[in-house]
Amino acid sequence: MTTTALTLTPTDGGAGCCGPAVTQAVDPEVARELARTFKALADPARVQLLAIVAAQDGSEACVCDLTEPVGLSQPTVSHHLKILVDAGLLTREQRGRWAYYSLVPGALARLAGALTDATSD
Amino acid sequence: MTTTALTLTPTDGGAGCCGPAVTQAVDPEVARELARTFKALADPARVQLLAIVAAQDGSEACVCDLTEPVGLSQPTVSHHLKILVDAGLLTREQRGRWAYYSLVPGALARLAGALTDATSD
């Protein structure tokens, strides 16, 4: 996730039919980036996995400890974790037999900030 | 969106193979609710529409003013707006010919809070 804030930029305004013209829109590139991140969170198992990792000491967890809490097989859990890594929310580190997943510092806070920025203008 | 915070509840812990046992997980019902809301935001057009509505005076916009900024037909825009309404992020009010959409007060802030709660434990 390289861009993390809803950057509001002026549009042409348009010919409003029934009120003040719409004068602001989100940059399309930012909208795509945010939608991609939200898509990674659009699954209950991934919400759970992210919250579990975030709740651990050092915001890090072994994949071997993540299967039981979500009640899914390790291949399925690894698939969900890969989506969270690809979205820039987690990082993955292989240590011997097991993969460890860590929360990307600030990633959730930046996403939260993008949501609240949308309501502050 | 009736439940808006990531409520962390104890799990059985499990037999961790290689570190401290995982002791926290998100309530499955909360995870489903959050995932449903994130899914509503998992589309660039819906991110744009939500931000445009949020940026208007009174956080309200006529559907007639929303088609041009996103470059989509009115039926397509209405479809996207319905998904945002169903997710509890917008409300819809018909006034004569046009439908007006308003941001649900606090909805985005609560969603943002759920994200940051996940990292505060």
From TrEMBL, chains A, B:
<keyword id="KW-0805">Transcription regulation</keyword>
<dbReference type="Pfam" id="PF01022">
    <property type="entry name" value="HTH_5"/>
</dbReference>
<dbReference type="InterPro" id="IPR036388">
    <property type="entry name" value="WH-like_DNA-bd_sf"/>
</dbReference>
<protein>
    <submittedName>
        <fullName>Helix-turn-helix transcriptional regulator</fullName>
    </submittedName>
</protein>
<dbReference type="GO" id="GO:0003677">
    <property type="term" value="F:DNA binding"/>
</dbReference>
<dbReference type="InterPro" id="IPR036390">
    <property type="entry name" value="WH_DNA-bd_sf"/>
</dbReference>
<dbReference type="InterPro" id="IPR018334">
    <property type="entry name" value="ArsR_HTH"/>
</dbReference>
<dbReference type="GO" id="GO:0003700">
    <property type="term" value="F:DNA-binding transcription factor activity"/>
</dbReference>
<dbReference type="InterPro" id="IPR051081">
    <property type="entry name" value="HTH_MetalResp_TranReg"/>
</dbReference>
<dbReference type="InterPro" id="IPR011991">
    <property type="entry name" value="ArsR-like_HTH"/>
</dbReference>
<keyword id="KW-0238">DNA-binding</keyword>
<feature type="domain" description="HTH arsR-type">
    <location>
        <begin position="26"/>
        <end position="121"/>
    </location>
</feature>
<keyword id="KW-0804">Transcription</keyword>
<dbReference type="InterPro" id="IPR001845">
    <property type="entry name" value="HTH_ArsR_DNA-bd_dom"/>
</dbReference>
